[in-house]
Amino acid sequence: MQASLDWISWTLLGAAAVAGGLVNALAGGGTLITFPVLTLLGVPPVVAGVTNTVAMAPGYMGGVWAQRKELAGARNRVFLLVPVSAVGGLIGGSLLLVAGDHTFKALIPWLLLFATVLMLAQDPLKKFLFSPGHEGKPRPVWPGAVAVGLVSVYGGFFLAGLSVIVLSVLAVGFDDPFRRSNALKQVVALTVSLAAALFFASTGKIDWALAGFMAVFTWAGGWLGGKLVGKIPVKLLFWTAIAAGAVSTVYYFLKG
């Protein structure tokens, strides 16, 4: 695929990529900004989903690097979750290509609605799942690993809301403290996006001009997010992602 956009479109896409990387670094939900912009610029739905997955990987990589200290004592968890996340991402990516533009286009408003609702529910979920009554209880690890694998299938198909779902699954499936679960969430999201991206690279569905351009700005947004932790209201970014998701959901329902 090859992009053909004017300078205004490139500017809009770059701004969306920076915002997506920034929101992902501080609040999650960056795909609710970047994916709708891609489709608004005329990119076919499947190509937009594939290209967005590739472009988001650098932002997740920055998140893993920023939280590497929390992963120092979680080597066993990483070795357990990376393979199942990779397999799930590959399966999800395969399903996206099998679905095709027509089916995926019909699913877009529902996927955006699901991701937006998940974003809205994440604070109550965190409070419930990480309450004292839910911590410190040893659990077998294999059910949690299987659950992460299943969630990763969704991530390979459509990234929006993945971080919120993964954090919830990690809270239920394992007995790690919140900060470690949050770091493991970044590892899972990075693995899913990389696995799906490697698969997509062999399909010819990636618009490399768009993906490469977005990746630079997504990384810049992630880096900026790391610098602004504690200096910018996370709630502002959170509600930006929610607003983008809500507007996009209504737009795609009306368009469909």
What's the short version?
The protein is an all-alpha fold.
Describe this structure in words.
There is one protein chain. This protein has 256 residues and is mainly alpha-helical. Helices cover 79% and strands 0% of the residues. The chain is built from nine helices and no strands. The model has no long low-confidence stretch (mean pLDDT 83).
Radius of gyration: 17 Å
Strands, count? 0
> What's the helix count?
9
Low-confidence stretches: none
Class by alpha and beta content:
mainly alpha
What count of structural domains? 1
Distance between the amino and carboxyl termini: 25 Å
User: What would the average pLDDT be, to the nearest integer?
Assistant: 83
Question: What does the overall shape look like?
Answer: globular
Helix content: over 70%
Strand content: under 5%
H/E series: HHHHHHHHH
Supply the key terms.
mainly alpha, about 260 residues, single chain, about 80% helix
Topology:
Elements lengths: L6 H20 L4 H10 L4 H22 L8 H55 L11 H17 L4 H12 L4 H24 L6 H21 L5 H22 L1
